[in-house]
Amino acid sequence: xxxxxxxxxxxxxxxxVREIDIKSTQxxxxxxxxxxxxxxxxxxxxxxxxVSTDHWIKGDEISYMPNQRKVDWGVSLMENVKLNSLIxxxxxxxxxxxxxxxxxxxxxxxxxIILETDPxxxxxxxxxxxxxxxxxxxxxxxxxxxxEVAPAINEFDFLNELNIVPxxxxxxxxxxxxxxNAKEQNVDDDDEEKDDDQDTFADDDDYExxxxxxxxxx
Length: 218
Known about the structure:
Layout: E1 3-10, E2 17-23, H1 28-39, E3 47-52, E4 58-64, H2 68-72, E5 76-77, E6 93-98, E7 104-114, E8 125-130, E9 136-137, E10 145-146, H3 158-161, H4 169-174
Parallel strand pairs: 4-5
Antiparallel strand pairs: 1-2, 1-7, 2-8, 3-4, 3-6, 6-7, 9-10
């Protein structure tokens, strides 16, 4: 029985790489779960592999937890498809999308075929790990970020050291910000006497330089 060694890399974070050894007769679901044991992500998310050309053009889809539309179209399921049934090239490529609700795109490439299994290894097996997987914002738990277990080989990543992820800014803004507080606007009516027929805001109110005129007076 042959062993396939796949190189798995983020499309947008090419410094983060995993190499995974897996039996040729194992399923795409096994590879899917092995990838996320190495990244620390939750594997129970709708995801898909696509048979790919050398230029990463997507072809036939193999899906995990597909939506009803894909089921109706008869999409292939990861739990049913063996890896060796779709290996047509010694450098076969698969385009992989994890979590369609908040997708990360991966390049998955067969880089080596090992003709014999190692009886001391349980497959799938993480052969090599380089870099720290980017953190994922958890919509169900805003205070928490999903992170991976420390990889075998680490490279310094300044954004990850600060727990900053560019993709998280929109969600943080929707929450009102984490560590970013919306500016409260107050009107101090006690410091100024107003005639009964005078508008709440006088035309000649002074505004502090640098503040937008649409803000309330202080």
